[in-house]
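ok here's Heat-inducible transcription repressor HrcA, seq below lol
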Amino acid sequence: MHDQTQLLTELNDRSREVFRRVVEGYLETGDPVGSRSLTRQMSEKLSAATIRNVMQDLEYMGLLGSPHVSAGRVPTQLGLRMFVDGFMEVGEVHVTDRQALDATLGANEPGVGSLLDRVGAALSGITHGASLVLAPKHEAPIRHIEFVSLGPDRALVVLVFADGQVENRVFTPPPGQTPSSMREAANFLNALAEGRTLSELRADIREEIVARRQELDTLAAELVESGLAQWADQGAPYERLIVRGRSNLLDGEEDLDRIRSLFDDLERKRDIAEFLDLTEDGDGVRIFIGSENKLFSLSGSSLVVSPYMNADRKIIGAVGVIGPTRLNYGRIVPIVDYTAQLVGRVLSGRGKG
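and the structure came out like this:
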């Protein structure tokens, strides 16, 4: 199998132009590109027969393919990857796109969750793809924890952070809880919690429960563990996955199964979190095309994703756009990059300036 560097050196100027125009035409229309249409676009005057020969060479190299119903060519996954890495021209973020993203910061709703929801909706709207936002856990020190009974099998755990943010979640408590066991559990947590972040608190809580089991009622201990487990997200460092605009991925009925399989996969945050490990290898936007990642191997989708960082330059989440492999990469890459920088600035408390 040729590698990209070798393939690039094997292409002369004529082959490069034919390749670039086929890919750009395909990304714009979704249709195979034929030699006859290229004769009108080429910078040097070439016959359709000459262009067909060049396209056959590109097909032999694995860069183009020919759908069986058409005489035209489309880029292969290898071809798309080479185009993205070596030929793509990345534009500026259009002023109206920038304004739409900036406007998400102006809403009065409090909380990081609602901000990221708005960002996801705006990103989906302007790219006509599905947006993906991986949100960080809130890691400010805790001021206070409370349990509130909502019924025999429902309770609320409320966390008040030192920075004033309040988060709460409904969960199923162990059976047999009483108002006094809930107070006991909250008192136990608050004695330990103040000034610690949630992850610091979780690191110590089990040891404390074992050491103080005698003074802490078994019911209260179970409530502490099950309540805090709601915040653990099975050990993942990311709080939640926001996906907006999945209907944008549907071109027709035949796509339904493909999209359903993609979103079944997306529910497994573990796979999405792996993208962050991959993005840590390099700054800025990463593009995953089709089966380059196991998540998209069945659905044939692409992901354009960028991590965002806190004030300490630590990656704490990611934003991205999912779509068919024929995304307008040149337009979407700067939009995703801009969105990630915007979110990073807000979450780091640096505002828009």
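fwiw The mean pLDDT is 77. kinda neat tbh
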